[in-house]
Amino acid sequence: MEHCGAQAGVDEGLVTDPPSCRAPANFLTHLQASSIWKAQAIRKNPGRLIPTSKLPLIRKAVVAACDARDGVNDDLLGDPRLCDFDLKTLECKGEDGPDCLIAAQVAVARAFYSPTVNPRTREQIYPGLMLGSELGWSSDVGRMHADITKTQASEYLRYGVFHDANWDFTTFDFDSAMAFADRVDDGVTKATDPNLRDFFQRGGTLLQYHG
User: Fold this and answer.
1) Among 26, 37, 89, 162, which is least packed, fewest CB within 10 Å?
2) Structure pTM?
3) What domain range is 36 assigned to?
């Protein structure tokens, strides 16, 4: 059976035979939890939402600080992991303005870059967004939204995991609730095992792409 799907569909694709997958969004429970991580950061910081108009400001500063790290000035980061840009350099010295971030917005941006972690074990649940990704933060991928109650992440957890129409994303606990979500999923969308030896030994072919 052939299968091709984006985001949640890719997880189905990775558990079908032969799998054909695009736009991998894996693994789903932890990916959606990372969106809740960002949403909680926005909710906790008054004046927190970074307007779309300021996202190019952050990216421009990031690129200016790190573009040359790969030896080429091309408005791209060859390896964002090598960038050590400090958001503090964009913090407003006084009143809010179009060319700076207030302290609450700096805190939210840091939450977007930071990995989602279990507060008890400090284990990483999902990696943060890369430096240089800022122009995508206003999309459903970045989720720089004041209200995420109708986004894919909240809907998935509300109905697919907790089965509660009144579930509130602000109550999500990244220790016990994360463990519960993984138990409920029980491998349905968690196609994370990289060992495809048996699949390839019987002549399987995997087509996977992104973009």
Assistant:
1) 89
2) 0.80
3) 27-190
